[in-house]
């Protein structure tokens, strides 16, 4: 029996504290591909999406279907969970998208940047006059805050980057062409002008895997959100399809926010990856930094991880939500962040980033020796701005 989804809602939360970036390649022989298992336990059953639906994500972001169909003219989106994980759609049978599956980032709103799509990162906060600057965009490719709004000054905010550079950005490209691990786009920097000048949110990240077939006749989108100025949009996010057979003449769209024609002010392109063996009817229109292959692997057998365990003297519980804190006036700015590395088996260069709501992000580089001790912990000295909310991330570099 098929479950027909009419509507479901969930709350929007802030971003996950840390993401690890690595690349992995697994070659799959044709005989093995025919026995490909997407990993779904089928617990959600056969689902047909008949009306616009925002589906709540479990804590791990993994949805287990028997089959999934999104009807024409209908959009399936997802409410971010507390850890802001990417969306993993796993199906024992066919996934047929005649409508739209969306993990788009959001436009800026009053007094804040746009939220990232699931697995993506927020836009920077707006400034308030000359005394309080805006904040940098969140994520490894987050845009820089701006002190001007001329759309032609080097002091303008910049757009978020991911697979390509956002408008005005000098760096910020990250991630793997394989999109392993799965991670979304970065937010645009906040502007100075008013409470509507926040950056656009980065597009989210979605993986769709089927043990039988994926047919895209409609679209899958991970579009960045628009900012409040001419050049502070979020980047596109990430879309990955994995099945023995992928077909259809629909669209995979991981464009940046800002402008539909990739002109002035646009966020950087996101990443798109299609892993399949049978490509006879594969006629998808793709917007994003894209590649196609036969890497029929949904989850790597071992995923090394970086975890923030303590920040400025405060312990961070395992599996908790985003790591944010504020130091009051008069506090010592010299603090430490403890990072735990697990499963690398080598010396790991890391980058700890503190992104305040106001002003530029602070970047601190270190290494953690995970060669013989597992897990291994390193203490990183940092300088923390006071009287502003700070969000902590840690990545490999």
Structural description of this entry:
The chain is mostly beta strands. The protein has two domains: 1-302, no CATH class; 305-396, Sandwich (Immunoglobulin-like), CATH 2.60.40. It has one helix and 26 strands. The protein has one helix at residues 30-33, and strands at residues 2-5, 46-49, 53-56, 62-65, 67-70, 75-79, 87-91, 95-97, 100-102, 205-210, 214-216, 219-221, 238-243, 246-247, 251-253, 271-275, 285-287, 289-293, 305-311, 314-315, 324-325, 334-342, 347-356, 362-369, 376-383, 390-396. The radius of gyration is 21 Å and the shape is globular.
Write a concise keyword list for the protein shown above.
single chain; 397 residues; mainly beta; Immunoglobulin-like; six-stranded parallel β-sheet; 26 strands; globular; disordered N terminus
Short description:
The chain is an all-beta fold. The protein has one helix and 26 strands.
Contiguous uncertain segments of 5+ residues: 1-32, 260-264
Strands in their spatial order, largest beta sheet: 1-2-5-8-11-14
- The total domain count is 2
Shape: globular
Largest sheet: 6 strands, parallel
- Total count of strands: 26
Task: Report how far apart the termini are.
Answer: 48 Å
The percentage helix is under 10%
Order of helices and strands: EHEEEEEEEEEEEEEEEEEEEEEEEEE
**Average pLDDT number:** 87
Helices and strands in order, then pairings?
Blueprint: E1 2-5, H1 30-33, E2 46-49, E3 53-56, E4 62-65, E5 67-70, E6 75-79, E7 87-91, E8 95-97, E9 100-102, E10 205-210, E11 214-216, E12 219-221, E13 238-243, E14 246-247, E15 251-253, E16 271-275, E17 285-287, E18 289-293, E19 305-311, E20 314-315, E21 324-325, E22 334-342, E23 347-356, E24 362-369, E25 376-383, E26 390-396
Parallel strand pairs: 1-2, 2-5, 3-6, 4-7, 5-8, 6-9, 7-10, 8-11, 9-12, 10-13, 11-14, 12-15, 13-16, 15-17, 16-18
Antiparallel strand pairs: 19-20, 19-22, 21-26, 22-25, 23-24, 23-26
């Amino acid at each position: 029996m098929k479950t027909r989804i009419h509507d479901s809602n969930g709350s929007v939360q802030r971003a996950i504290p840390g993401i690890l970036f690595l690349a992995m390649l697994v070659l799959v022989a044709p005989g093995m591909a025919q026995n490909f298992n997407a990993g779904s336990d089928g617990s959600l059953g056969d689902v047909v999406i008949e009306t616009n639906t925002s589906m709540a994500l479990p804590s791990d972001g993994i949805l287990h279907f028997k089959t999934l169909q999104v009807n024409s003219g209908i959009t399936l989106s997802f409410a971010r969970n507390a850890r802001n994980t990417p969306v993993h759609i796993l199906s024992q049978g066919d996934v047929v998208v005649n409508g739209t599956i969306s993990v788009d980032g959001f436009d800026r709103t009053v007094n804040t940047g746009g939220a990232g799509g699931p697995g993506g990162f927020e836009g920077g906060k707006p400034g308030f006059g000359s005394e309080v600057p805006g904040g940098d965009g969140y994520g490894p490719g987050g845009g820089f805050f701006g002190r001007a709004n001329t759309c032609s000054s080097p002091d303008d905010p910049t757009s978020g980057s991911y697979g390509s550079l956002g408008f005005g950005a000098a760096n910020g490209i990250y991630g793997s062409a394989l999109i392993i691990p799965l991670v979304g786009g970065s937010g645009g920097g906040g502007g100075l002008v008013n409470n509507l000048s926040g950056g656009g949110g980065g597009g989210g990240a979605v993986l769709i895997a089927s043990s039988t077939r994926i047919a895209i006749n409609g679209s899958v989108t991970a579009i960045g959100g628009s900012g409040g100025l001419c050049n502070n949009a979020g980047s596109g996010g990430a879309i990955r399809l994995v099945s023995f057979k992928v077909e259809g003449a629909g669209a995979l769209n991981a464009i940046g926010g800002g402008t539909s024609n990739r002109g002035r002010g646009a966020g950087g392109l996101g990443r798109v990856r299609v892993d399949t063996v049978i490509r006879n009817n594969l006629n998808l229109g793709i917007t994003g930094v894209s590649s196609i292959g036969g890497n029929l692997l949904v989850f790597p057998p071992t995923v090394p991880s970086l975890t923030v365990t303590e920040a400025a003297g405060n312990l961070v519980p395992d599996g908790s939500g985003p790591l944010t804190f504020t130091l009051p006036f008069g506090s010592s700015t010299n603090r430490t962040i403890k990072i735990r590395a697990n499963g690398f088996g080598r010396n790991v260069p890391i980058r700890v980033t503190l992104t305040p709501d106001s002003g530029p992000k602070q970047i601190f580089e270190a290494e953690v020796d995970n060669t013989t001790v597992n897990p291994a912990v390193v203490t990183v000295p940092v300088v923390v701005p006071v009287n502003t909310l700070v969000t902590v991330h840690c990545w490999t570099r």
